[in-house]
Design goal:
By secondary structure, the protein is of the alpha+beta class. The chain folds into two domains: 70-360, Serine Threonine Protein Phosphatase 5, Tetratricopeptide repeat (Alpha Horseshoe); 367-497, Pleckstrin-homology domain (PH domain)/Phosphotyrosine-binding domain (PTB) (PH-domain like). It has 16 helices and nine strands. It has helices spanning 83-96, 113-116, 120-129, 134-156, 161-173, 182-201, 206-221, 227-246, 251-265, 270-290, 295-315, 326-343, 348-357, 417-425, 467-485, 489-497, and strands at residues 29-30, 35-36, 367-373, 387-393, 397-401, 428-430, 434-440, 449-455, 458-464. A hairpin with a 4-residue loop joins strand 1 and strand 2. The longest helix is centred in the N-terminal third of the chain and has 23 residues, at 134-156. The two termini are 23 Å apart. Mean pLDDT is 74; it is low at 1-15, 19-41 and 48-119.
């Protein structure tokens, strides 16, 4: 896929997919003459395990007794062990046994051989998934040791949902990402069963739903674009939804939910795709609204908009009368990718993608569009006095472009007085002056999608052409402010000014 040159802004690249974190697989493949983007989703990490710095300072049960949920009875096996504890236990095992069979590390609560290996099938899966190299053997030792400890906790307390959750998390987290063995899928399936049991015991355990969805997503990716993968992606979206319902303040879950929907949209029939993509856009946007500098969700929103533009371009128009044009979608896509790059300029994936879409920006601006504005100095003027004019947004602020009058009164010096006055009276919002940006609905505003920009000098009210257009303005202004607040305005300036 050739990089579109800046001299031909009308030309759009043929494909752009969600990109990955540079530390993950799916790197950009570069040639001498062009950049070919092989981009994969930027997924959020798994939730951290419940690590405890010192064994003697274990926290009490996390559930409120008034919640009506079972209270976890904590014991040594009902939590995730720190890496230090696992390695210490492994050293103890190696000191008392010269073979590969694990030996109980806790002599105070010895387990019978049958109970110690009550999940023998899972142990065999661990041995088959891990490799024969040193890293694989280390993974196997840690995974086997952790499995024995969690099995011990569950034997002592069959209702220990925290042990089930942590066991599942440990298993899924230690699956070799490069392994193509069928046992890898089987081990992920075993982890899913433990997540299922943990959520059955504690239906409000949102972390379990979140990581359960991640494990299901990993299984779906192994199946390509098949019916089985479609069913798994649908399950993943369901459990991400439950995780968000139980913990709405999770941009990571929203981001991954959007990615699962995006993957699902590539498999379902064409008639179902559009609505799924629209839902994915709403999840990415919700994630950004919770965390304005969440560059992964920002980037993923750009990629899904790009894909939607490509789809609309292929069918020759819009699916419904409310849809924006493909060119507008390309421009929106470029805004998000430019913002992600400004926030993380060292990410090669973002840099490469920016080269693909930079020509789609309305350079030397980040965003150009129309807003309805009141006459200068009178924000509550009659609706008939409000005028729809062009606005531009760059790294410095939001500015109204007021056309110069065709005829104007000449001053003694010969300068057009009215033109000068009109420029001075144009709406101008400097980014450092912004306090907040929000949608608003007020009877004093003309009908439409209201935009309120609160500044240190007072509020500025504008009206967008539609609520979809308003979303784009809100995101763009918030992103520019976030980039300014993070001290990266110079990076954004370099993007849009060249």
């Amino acid at each position: 896929m050739a990089v579109p040159s800046e001299e031909s802004p009308e030309h759009h690249p043929t494909a752009l997919e969600p990109a990955t974190d540079p530390q993950e697989n799916g790197a950009i493949q570069q040639s001498n003459d062009a950049v070919e983007a092989i981009l994969e989703p930027v997924a959020s990490d798994k939730d951290p395990k419940h690590e405890v710095p010192e064994p003697e300072s274990l926290p009490s049960g996390s559930n409120d007794e008034s919640s009506g949920q079972p209270e976890l009875k904590k014991d040594e096996g009902s939590r995730t062990f720190t890496m230090r504890e696992l390695l210490s236990g492994l050293k103890g095992d190696q000191g008392t046994s010269n073979n590969s069979t694990p030996v109980a590390a806790d002599s105070a609560s010895p387990l019978s051989e049958d109970s110690l290996y009550q999940n023998h099938a899972a142990m065999e899966l661990i041995n088959s998934v891990t490799g024969v190299d040193e890293e694989g053997r280390s993974r196997q030792k840690i995974l086997t040791y952790a499995a024995r400890r969690y099995a011990s906790a569950i034997e002592k307390n069959s209702g220990d949902y925290d042990a089930l959750y942590n066991w599942a998390l440990e298993s899924a987290d230690n699956v070799d990402p490069d392994s193509a063995s069928p046992s890898k899928d089987a081990l992920l399936e075993e982890a899913c069963k433990k997540y299922e049991e943990a959520t059955r015991l504690c239906p409000t355990l949102h972390d379990a739903y979140y990581n359960w969805a991640i494990a299901i997503s990993d299984r779906a990716r192994m199946r390509g674009r098949t019916k089985e993968a479609e069913d798994l992606w649908k399950q993943a979206t369901e459990y991400y939804g439950k995780a968000v319902q139980l913990n709405w303040n999770s941009p990571q879950a929203l981001n991954n939910w959007g990615l699962a929907l995006q993957e699902l949209s590539a498999i379902v029939p064409a008639k179902e795709k559009h609505n799924i993509v629209k839902t994915a856009i709403s999840k990415f946007r919700a994630a950004i609204q919770l965390q304005f500098d969440f560059h992964r969700a920002i980037y993923n929103l750009g990629t899904v908009l790009y894909g939607l533009a490509e789809d609309l371009l292929r069918i020759g128009g819009s699916v419904s009368h409310n849809d924006v044009s493909p060119n507008d979608l390309y421009s929106q896509c470029a805004v998000y990718i430019a913002a992600a790059h400004a926030l993380k300029p060292n990410y090669s994936v973002y840099r490469s993608a920016l080269r693909l879409v930079r020509s789609m920006l309305p350079l030397p601006y980040l965003k150009v569009g129309y807003l309805t504005a009141p006459p200068p100095g009178n924000p509550i003027a009659p609706h008939s006095d409000w005028k729809r004019t062009q606005f531009v947004l760059n790294h410095e602020g939001l500015y109204q472009l007021v056309p110069e009058p065709k005829t104007s009164r000449q001053s003694l010096s010969g300068k057009p007085v009215d033109a000068a006055n009109s420029k001075n009276k144009a709406v101008k919002v400097d980014i450092p002056d912004i306090v907040s940006v929000s949608a608003c609905a007020d009877l004093t505003l003309p009908p439409g999608a209201g935009l309120s920009i609160d500044t240190v000098h007072g509020p500025v009210y504008l009206v967008a052409d539609s609520w979809e257009s308003l979303d784009g303005w809100l995101d763009a202004i918030r992103l520019v402010y976030t980039i300014f607040a993070r001290g990266k305005s110079d990076v954004l300036a370099g993007v849009i000014t060249g």
